[in-house]
Please model this.
Amino acid sequence: MTIESLTGQTCFDDLGLVGPDLTRTSFLESYSNRFESLSCHGEWTSYRGHVRENQGEFVLTVVFKRERLFEVRLARVQGPSSWAEWDEKKERQRKTEHDLILSTALGQSPGQFQWGEASSVFEARSGASEIIIRYKQ
Model:
């Protein structure tokens, strides 16, 4: 995976380009067989699928506001797991791995860009770590 720091275009090894110009319609035409509908609330829709990268397998969630791509969320798959096996220390370790993956993909530190922002987060409420690429609307 690489992220063009000037445009926000993200290139996935087995998916191709995803970026701020991707519309919901073109996403569905190109990728509907690889993604499942996750939610639809008013003007917001999201889809989830899996992508394989050099760094491993990721769950990829794309979120659209009307026709425009709002954000891309990635979480590295760490094998079979359940809430009974969840451990905060392991999840924070996954966040550290995400930090490195994101910095490598960008070729620089994550943060704010002209096109939006890229970050690696651990969300305590959900107990999950993710890479988030959010585009300006």
Remarks:
- The mean pLDDT is 91.
- DSSP finds two helices and ten strands in the chain.
- The two ends are 23 Å apart (CA to CA).
- The chain has one domain: 2-135.
